[in-house]
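Dear colleague,

Thank you for sharing your sequence with our group. We've completed the structure prediction you requested, and as agreed, I am returning the results in plain text so they can be pasted directly into your records. Please verify that the sequence below matches your submission; if there's any discrepancy, let me know and we will rerun it promptly.
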Amino acid sequence: MDLQHQTFHNKGCDIHYWHKSSSSADYVIFLHGAGCDHRMFASQLPIFGESYNVLLWDARGHGLSKLQHNQTFSFEDMIDDFLKLCEKYQIANAILIGQSMGGNLAQEILFRKPNLVSKLILIDCTRNTGKLTLSEKLMLKLSKPIFYCYPWQTLIRQSAEACGNDEAVKAYVRNCLAQMKKKDFIDVMMSLMTCLREDEAYRFPKPVLLLCGEDDRSGNIRKIVAPWADSDANCTLLMIEKAGHNANQDNPTAVNKAIASFLTTP
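Please find the predicted structure tokens below.
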């Protein structure tokens, strides 16, 4: 796929993104997970051929979209980046495909701008509006000091092990994280908590495909995904065999088949 590498500046950060135009007005926008970059969706691009305009990015603080020395990652700034990108291309309706952090961002965009989204595909991400147990709330409060206790190389290695089953996926994650500073990674993880709000009455107003690796060991994702799907008539769940947290990389064949089928569903 012929992707054009471009940048735009917003809130002190040069955001790098990749764009492919088509004759269609339909857009699909890929949103990667924390610590990763746009390359994690390489195996999904062939699904879309010439039928869609495609956008991928390196979210601020990730990949080529480096933060300035005195900057701190903010989930709210990332939302603003996304909306600026949509404004730049006058996007009025898009399919969002988000993995982990990207899925949290996609949920928040649908919550705030429902008319901007036609469908969501959420890969191995937690529920923004889910109810947390007391132990989960405690772990969130303790996570920052725990992260800082870990040597950076140990944190990189353990994060990579949690993300993938396939050795190539683990190597990719290690490569991405090695380009970040420990403080920046921790800032990203802590900022993600700002999108969590308990609202058990909330239901998605658009069709949503939930994909989860059967071996996902990250947070509470595997535990909550089935009840999440059961509670929302707009959700369709598929567990992905032989896949960890980065299910779209561990088992792209199964993920691509599920996405292609979902795209044709009214």
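Summary note from our side: The longest helix spans residues 134-149.

Kind regards,
the structure core
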